[in-house]
Design brief:
Blueprint lengths: L1 H25 L8 H4 L11 H13 L2 H9 L6 H26 L5 H8 L2 H34 L3 H17 L6 H24 L23 H5 L8 H10 L8 H26 L3 H8 L6 H48 L6 H18 L4 H29 L5 H20 L8 H21 L10
Helix pairs in contact: 1-5, 1-12, 3-9, 3-11, 3-12, 3-14, 4-12, 4-14, 5-11, 5-12, 5-16, 5-17, 6-7, 6-16, 7-8, 7-14, 7-15, 7-16, 8-14, 8-15, 9-12, 9-14, 11-14, 14-15, 16-17, 17-18
């Protein structure tokens, strides 16, 4: 319990202290007009109250990550708290704030445009494809998983829920941002937080020491912490997916000073949710082997852990609300993934999104691609999303580091997590059996060489004057 409370305090201090440092490094300026004011169109550029944007941003970036990822990461034991807490403060919060404010400064543009603007034009074309692929993949995963969970509750075939969810996705991708997302999502976010806090309160009422305070690797299958844990726990610490969601809300921001709460603050709140679910998973089961027996059973997995923990702490009725909150969490990130895919394609092909016909066409394209992805095995989809997600976070961190360097501002705040994640992603891909399948020691050495090479390029590269920055 003491470890959990200490972790919560660190997250709060991280927002108050380090969040203000990051804000100053970027140079937020309330005298600048935001895209919501300069380019208001009643569709995607719509000014909204700060509290609404904050809750929507939190819901959009969360997805299944701070629940499923944290529960899976709990297999490592309390050591996972280190990545959740320090990752949220020094990596995830920095990433989300800078990519979000980056979009605010550049007319609400998506990350492929920003990468092309800062790094190179050739990189932009690659990342249009890469971004849309990730977003459609996420949308498919976030349709299948909640459909399966709903099918278990209501005893109805999964296919019916998949069709229903994709129908809903089409509406939210097509309609103006304030019609469904702006109106209802803040309350969905509150539902998730209420259920999560209820589970935490029930755990406190057990009045026992939750788990031993140790930083040992307690994983039942002896899976190494590096680099696997940093890929497994993504949305609860650092996630490239967040950079795809921030442009949606950057187009609604009333002023730049609210950016710290909306972008950095929502990441810290997500880290708190991940911290709670990791604690629930570790504390509820008598030991890591008991947790592992459910977690790594092909017929059970994270969904069963969530169900067992919820039933055990808040009863049968409460568990239904807990599962529904996770379902909502998933669906509300899936639809904004497709919306972001639409925005990315619209910028790439220069489609004016004020016109309903063009929005309809692009919405149909991304939704049909998402439906095609549902034909693949969900485990395979999640595997590819895992490393692609963190790799995109790595590229985003390098991009904002170059931006800060060109602005003569403190680029170390993003450079250090960029260097760390380059080592993580390179090691993971090199040692993974589905990729290069190298020995772990060899993979680490090569990854360090790659990281050193990229770091040297960062310091030596001269940036052309054509890339004017704001």
């Amino acid at each position: 319990m003491s470890l959990f409370i200490s972790s919560v305090i660190l997250l709060i201090l991280g927002y108050v202290i380090y969040g203000s440092i990051v804000e100053r490094a970027f140079g937020a300026d309330n005298n600048r007009k935001t895209p919501a004011i300069k380019y208001a169109d009643g569709v995607d550029f719509v000014k909204m109250p700060v509290w609404r944007i904050f809750l929507i941003q939190f819901l959009n970036i969360a997805g299944l990550g701070p629940v499923f990822g944290a529960v899976l990461g709990a297999a490592y034991g309390p050591v996972c708290f280190l990545w959740i807490v320090f990752g949220s403060i020094f990596a995830g919060g920095v990433h989300d704030y800078l990519t979000g404010m980056f979009s605010v400064r550049f007319k609400g543009k998506t990350m492929d445009y920003l990468i092309g603007k800062i790094l190179s034009r050739h990189a932009k074309y690659f990342f249009v494809f890469f971004l849309v692929l990730i977003l459609v993949l996420v949308g498919a995963v976030f349709a299948i998983n909640p459909a399966k969970m709903l099918a278990l509750i209501f005893k109805i075939p999964v296919i019916y829920f998949v069709v229903l969810i994709f129908g809903y996705y089409f509406l939210t991708t097509l309609l103006p941002v304030d019609k469904i997302i702006g109106r209802f999502y803040p309350f969905f976010a509150l539902l998730l937080l209420i259920v999560t806090v209820s589970l935490l309160v029930s755990l406190f009422r057990l009045n026992t020491e939750w788990f031993p305070i140790t930083l040992e690797n307690l994983h039942p299958q002896k899976v190494p912490i590096f680099p696997l844990m940093f890929i497994t726990i993504a949305c609860g610490a650092l996630s490239g997916f967040h950079a795809t969601q921030s442009p949606i809300m950057s187009r609604c921001l009333p002023n730049e000073k609210s950016g710290r709460l909306i972008f950095y603050g929502s990441m810290i709140l997500e880290g708190l949710v991940a911290l709670i679910w990791a604690s629930l998973a570790i504390a509820f089961y008598p030991d890591q082997n008991a947790l592992g027996s459910v977690l790594f059973d092909p017929a059970k997995g994270q969904g069963e852990v969530i169900s067992e923990v919820s039933k055990g702490l808040i009863g049968q009725v409460g568990s239904v609300f807990a599962i529904l909150s996770v379902v909502v969490l998933s669906i509300t990130s899936g639809d904004t993934a497709f919306r972001s895919a639409r925005l990315t394609l619209a910028e790439a092909v220069h489609f004016d999104q004020k016109k309903l016909g063009k929005r309809f066409l692009l919405s149909a394209v991304v939704l049909l691609a998402g439906i095609a992805f549902t034909m693949f095995d969900i485990t395979t989809l999640w595997y590819y999303f895992g490393w692609a997600n963190q790799t995109f976070a790595m590229f985003s961190l390098w991009t904002v580091s170059v931006y800060l360097k060109k602005k003569n501002r403190c680029y170390w705040i993003s450079l250090l997590p960029a260097i760390f994640m380059t080592t993580v992603c390179a090691t993971y891909i090199l040692q993974d059996k589905n990729s290069f399948s190298l020995d772990m020691k060899v993979a680490k050495i090569i990854a360090l060489i790659i990281t050193a090479f990229v770091s040297v390029l960062f310091f030596l590269k001269k940036y052309p004057k054509r890339n004017k920055i704001q």
